[in-house]
């Protein structure tokens, strides 16, 4: 089946030292810019220049494969566009000026379009169609529901949608007629499973059941009988994830890490429940899916902070040669229904997402040029992978961005950048805000502290029940590592992060008040009790797993108070900046209101920026310009400067 947006919600969505070891940098992913380091950057760009880089995402071929459907923030807000599959002018499909709107797919037999949007970032997405007459229609109407596209049937006569309209805590599966949108309930999700892929014959549904953030069982449901069979017998904790059914619907391909540190691909035969190995690697295999008729199998590997894509001829098992391209990584491969064409993205440090397309056997064609032409790519910086030993000897992987202008003779201020999650990962990729900070002379160390994904299940589990303690100590070790670099000013090191990374930022200021000179909290948790008690109802499938990872508000109240920065805000004595979306359903606005008020009582400079039309993440260009611009001003004042050039803003 063609599928998109299936509910495979990891905990990472719940929130996106002493002895130093040997530094282990990886080779930069691209050649050095054609100029000496001393000559770069040739200029410092405004935040407007970085945000004027065009964002593009997604790719769906039209029925006749003459056009591609995709999403872009070209207008300042995400909307849906189409363009000729061989390149050409963009045609706007939606023209929203208020709510970010994202492409889902063309219909298999005509040019009708499916797309999705929420309301001001509240994450209550609905599924919409632009019908044959050009009118927009909500296929999932109702208040306070969340719906996601779950794929077209192989013959295109139906499509599937998950929705929590019956019960806010669980997602049921509905089958819609592609002709007239009549629908029927095909799976009533009484077990609060996470829904996975559907077989081409429309009989089998993959289901997941998390028990902890490190353990999830795999089930296969028979849509005729509704019976679900567990197919993931194992000892110890292990993650099983359904990936795709075989083209003949006889096998479910899945990933599992029960036989080692990293997830490998195996398959289970429906009915007999016999398992077979398929593929393993030295890192996590994070995706495995088939083209429409099964000619190709596509695999994605999380390889030390980078994405490695492999395409196989399924019948022979032989790899398909991918094109040689400029610096960057191939991502998000989409193969047309005829299996004659492929679209994909190229992404790198100095290469924001650009859409490419090819006919198999021919050279690819670049369809977009996303980097703002006002920016010289040579002025951007390449990241590298570095590792240090944390306080207890654990090796911590990181992504490091070094400004061109930083040297032993011109030491630069630095930031420890903490990702969301907790189980997220900082990877090698283009980041407008990190490149903006590097361009203005800030070293950025994207720490993958213990508990981050991508480095094996033992490392991933190493933060369980320890938040605010050992993982936080990793950030202190990261500071020590930065101080060991001869081009870093050891007295000017701050900390920044979003979501769980925002929690780590404020926790560092509260529990280690003398370590970092300033902190930037982007919609971070500061009161675990409130956050865990106010999680959206549709997180029910992994609520208990979240409690086991962070703490149960019913039985571990004292522990959660001890690890929540809000209750220790009187110890914060360094400047703090907080950014918040008013419609955030994960970290609600009162969370940020309270930490700002508490820290202001200390007489500490606090800057608070609230966006009334955003949620958990800032999707609109005007808000990114304001927010990221204010971050630089804050850092220039309190980290790079003496705190007197600019005062804190209300």
TrEMBL record:
GO BP terms in the entry: proteolysis
Family annotation (SUPFAM superfamilies): alpha/beta-Hydrolases, DPP6 N-terminal domain-like
Membrane-crossing segments per the record: none
The keyword Hydrolase is assigned to this record: yes
InterPro entries for the chain: 6-blade_b-propeller_TolB-like, AB_hydrolase_fold, Pept_S9_AS, Pept_S9A_N, Peptidase_S9_cat, Peptidase_S9A
Coiled-coil annotated residue ranges, if any: none
Protein keywords: Acetylation, Hydrolase, Protease, Serine protease, Signal
GO MF, any single term: serine-type endopeptidase activity
Every Peptidase S9A N-terminal domain range: 105-360
Cross-referenced PROSITE patterns: PRO_ENDOPEP_SER
Extent of the signal sequence: 1-28
Residues covered by the Peptidase S9 prolyl oligopeptidase catalytic domain: 431-641
Family the entry assigns: Belongs to the peptidase S9A family.
PANTHER family xref list: DIPEPTIDYL PEPTIDASE FAMILY MEMBER 6 (PTHR42776:SF27), SERINE PEPTIDASE S9 FAMILY MEMBER (PTHR42776)
Function text: This enzyme catalyzes the hydrolysis of the N-terminal peptide bond of an N-acetylated peptide to generate an N-acetylated amino acid and a peptide with a free N-terminus. It preferentially cleaves off Ac-Ala, Ac-Met and Ac-Ser. Also, involved in the degradation of oxidized and glycated proteins.
UniProt protein name: Acyl-peptide hydrolase
Lineage, highest ranks first: Bacteria, Pseudomonadati, Pseudomonadota, Gammaproteobacteria, Lysobacterales
């Amino acid at each position: 089946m063609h599928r998109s947006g299936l509910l495979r919600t990891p905990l990472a969505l719940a929130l996106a030292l002493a002895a130093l070891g040997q530094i282990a940098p990886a080779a930069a992913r691209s050649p050095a810019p054609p100029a000496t380091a001393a000559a770069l950057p040739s200029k410092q760009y405004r935040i407007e220049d970085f945000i004027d880089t065009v964002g593009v995402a997604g790719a769906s071929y039209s029925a006749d494969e003459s056009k591609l459907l995709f999403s872009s923030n070209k207008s300042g807000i995400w909307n849906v566009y189409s363009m000729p599959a061989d390149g050409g002018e963009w045609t706007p499909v939606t023209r929203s000026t208020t709510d970010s709107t994202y492409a889902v797919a063309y219909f298999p037999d005509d040019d009708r379009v499916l797309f999705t949007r929420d309301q001001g970032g509240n994450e209550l997405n609905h599924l919409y169609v632009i019908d044959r007459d050009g009118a927009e229609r909500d296929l999932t109407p109702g208040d306070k529901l969340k719906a996601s596209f779950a794929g077209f049937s192989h013959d295109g006569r139906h499509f599937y949608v998950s929705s929590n309209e019956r019960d806010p805590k669980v997602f049921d599966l509905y089958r819609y007629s592609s002709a007239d949108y009549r629908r029927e309930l095909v799976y009533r999700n009484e077990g609060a499973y996470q829904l996975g892929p559907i077989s081409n014959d429309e009989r089998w549904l993959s289901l997941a059941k998390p028990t902890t953030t490190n353990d999830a069982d795999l089930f296969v449901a028979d849509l005729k009988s509704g019976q679900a069979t567990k197919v993931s017998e194992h000892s110890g904790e292990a993650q099983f994830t359904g990936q795709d059914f075989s083209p003949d619907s006889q096998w479910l391909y899945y990933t599992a890490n029960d036989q080692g540190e990293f997830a490998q691909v195996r398959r289970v035969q429906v009915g007999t429940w016999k398992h077979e190995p398929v593929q393993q690697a030295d890192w996590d295999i994070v995706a495995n899916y088939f083209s429409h008729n099964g000619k190709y199998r596509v695999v994605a590997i999380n390889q030390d902070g980078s994405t490695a894509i492999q395409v196989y001829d399924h019948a022979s098992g032989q790899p398909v040669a991918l094109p040689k391209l400029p610096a960057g990584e191939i991502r998000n491969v989409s193969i047309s229904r005829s299996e004659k064409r492929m679209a994909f993205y190229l992404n790198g440090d100095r290469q924001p997402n650009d859409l490419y397309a090819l006919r198999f056997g021919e050279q690819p064609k670049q369809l977009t040029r996303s980097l703002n032409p006002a920016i010289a790519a040579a002025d951007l910086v390449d990241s590298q992978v570095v590792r240090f030993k944390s306080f207890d000897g654990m090796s911590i992987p990181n992504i490091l961005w070094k400004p061109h202008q930083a040297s032993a003779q011109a030491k630069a201020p630095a930031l420890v950048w903490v990702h969301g999650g907790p189980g997220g990962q900082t990877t090698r990729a283009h980041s407008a805000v990190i490149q903006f900070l590097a361009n203005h002379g800030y070293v950025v160390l994207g720490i993958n502290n213990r508990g981050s994904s991508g480095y094996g299940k033992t490392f991933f589990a190493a933060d369980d029940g320890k938040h605010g303690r050992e993982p936080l100590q990793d950030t202190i070790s990261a500071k020590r590592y930065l101080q060991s670099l001869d081009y870093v000013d050891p007295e000017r090191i701050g900390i920044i992060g979003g979501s769980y990374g925002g929690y780590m930022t404020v926790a560092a200021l509260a529990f280690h008040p003398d370590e970092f000179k300033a902190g930037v909290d982007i919609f971070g948790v500061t009161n675990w009790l409130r956050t865990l008690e106010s999680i959206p109802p549709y997180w029910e499938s992994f609520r208990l797993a979240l409690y086991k990872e962070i703490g149960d508000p019913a039985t571990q109240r004292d522990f959660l108070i001890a690890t929540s920065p809000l209750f220790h805000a009187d110890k914060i004595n360094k400047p703090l900046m907080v950014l918040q979306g008013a419609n955030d359903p994960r970290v609600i606005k009162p969370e940020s209101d309270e930490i700002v008020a508490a820290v202001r009582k200390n007489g500490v400079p606090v800057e608070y920026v609230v966006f009334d039309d955003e949620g958990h993440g800032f999707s609109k260009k005007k808000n990114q310009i304001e927010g990221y611009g204010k971050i630089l001003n804050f850092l220039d004042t309190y980290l790079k400067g003496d705190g007197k050039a600019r005062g804190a803003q209300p």
